[in-house]
Amino acid sequence: MTAWQSVLDWWFGSASSSAEVAAARGTLWFGKRDSQDREAHERFAGLVEQALAGELEDWNQQPEGWLARVLLLDQLPRMIFRDTPRAFAGDAGAQALVRAGMAEGWDARLTPIQRVFIYLVLEHAEDLAVQDQAVACFRALRNAAPESERQLFDDYLDYAERHRRVIARFARFPHRNAILGRASSAAELSFLQEPGSRF
User: Fold this and answer.
1) Which long-range contacts (CB under 8 A, 24 or more apart) does 2-5 make?
2) DSSP letter assigned to residue 176
3) What is the CATH number of the domain that holds 117?
4) CA R_g for the chain
5) Tally of structural domains, the chain
6) How far is it, in rounded angstroms, from Cα 111 to Cα 181?
7) Domain that holds residue 34
8) What tens digit of pLDDT does each residue of 45-54 get?
9) Is 54 exposed, middle or buried (0-12, 13-18, 19+ CB in 10 A)?
């Protein structure tokens, strides 16, 4: 098994349909559990450090390896380095990697649920034009989904639209301010008291 395949197997599991994968792995993806963060560190900290250092470029030779490298830069640091500035250390690299791969059409060669984690990189950007692109990508995924999975992709689109509204309003994500040592404005502090403001 290749190293990149081990990342994909852990992240997506063995279910087949998008709905089944999301049901089985959703807690891992969005659950924020200490045990999951520890497992991510134990299994993949070394690969994450390599990716952050600009290594593992050979993974970019196929869409699945590209996806795994994106996960190492975007999703895994958010678990391994949660609540520290390093949680976002791979964002710029992930965005560049996603732009390059999408220019080659590699996202279209992934399954719909895999594509979610390419487009989440766009959703994480503190840039309104990139947020517009994220919303467009998630809308296309939703529109292409079978009726049985439409609600799942409706939810992903809703989150993308919510992220875009925050960037349109503040030009950044206020919930990152404390972690990154950024001063929050009065409007941002008020916003952070609202339910759902921290994703």
Assistant:
1) 2/65, 3/47, 3/59, 3/68, 4/56, 4/59, 4/64, 4/65, 4/68, 4/69, 5/64, 5/68
2) G
3) 1.25.40.10
4) 16
5) 1
6) 38
7) 3-191
8) 999 999 999 9
9) exposed
